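Hello,

I think I submitted the zinc ion job twice by accident. Can you confirm which output corresponds to this input? Input:
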Amino acid sequence: MPYARALRCRKCGQEYPLQPINLCDFCFSPLEVSYDYKAMAKALNRKKLTGGPLSMWRYRDMLPVEGKEVDIGTGFTPLVKADNLGRELGLDQLYIKNDCLNPTYSFKDRPVSVAATKAQEFGFDTLACASTGNLAASVAAHAAKANMKAYVFVPADVEPGKLVGTAIYNPVLITVDGSYDDVNRLCAMVAQKYKWGFININLRPYYAEGSKTLGYEVAEQLGWRAPDCVIAPAGSGLSFTRIWQALDELSMLGLIESANTHMYLTQAAGSSPIVNAFKAGSLHVNPVEPDTIVKSIAIGNPADGYFALKIVRESRGGACAVTDEEAIAGMKLLAQAEGIFAEATGGVVIAGLKRLVASGVIKRNELTVAFITGAGPKTQEIVSDIVQPLTTQPTLESLEKVLSVPA
Ligand SMILES: [Zn+2]
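Support: Only one job matched these inputs. Its output is below.
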């Protein structure tokens, strides 16, 4: 860990050694990793980073790890130039960061890979997490790879595809009769009692850092520049803050010229506490009771909502919420324009982008990157109405009749 030097309170600045803790003893605010950026800037350059492995671990020097990585092959996912979708929406330079293509089919493999690596360094033999589904699968997969035990907690109404996609790695899978926020509260109690590496509790400061690789990759893939606009979903708001931080760091380290990116955040209307606060002109996020089919980001009390809002404001970006119907239409549009089958959260991003472009907030000539963070096959029941096959007997005659081809 050459450059990570301490954990620091985001509010009062109090510093702590790099340990498995996540809250400040003085003000109970979240802790984050602080780095020696001066030393990092001296040691890093574009050439060195470009020569690294074709995975998120090409940015290892910018992550808070010491030991051997728990790596299941995560990262360096495609940045796709989305010309068809851009034409449809009215954007000349639209790119999709397709993070469906990680080993467990969501961006969560990035933060979990860092957190699992730290868990091993700290000597934990068990990984655990509270999850809306994607995180559970990723934690279970990393535990399998690292020969660790895993306890994963999800709300009982999680989509069936996500349960299978988690259970296959053989963790102890626990469904909780309640919302994600209830699961989270239970896990806070469990974490007090059991000495487990809780990915999004005592390992949260390290977990958070993994999402920065999304921002690093996009800048590198654009030829070492920051986008004009970023649009990304927000559940807890954590990954949204880290995409921005990544761009800010690259600029500070002199690896890109500047990061004047406008940050746009999207949520489902049935769970949009951060968007509500943005619209009310407040930095205070009032919790809501989620009611949406977009379960991956159905978090009523977002832990990083305040920090996400601050970034929206400071970057002169925006926030918008879309209905479940718009999210489904967004899923279909992305698949039919670009060949990318995203989960409902991706539909929220595309539907939000459509609104922001239509209302003139995001301009045609702005280079825009939309972050698609999870894959559609996990939640395919949401769009099952599209399955309307033509059926035929195995003869040419029957087929031509079905296709209404003139004889
Ligand atoms: Zn503090």
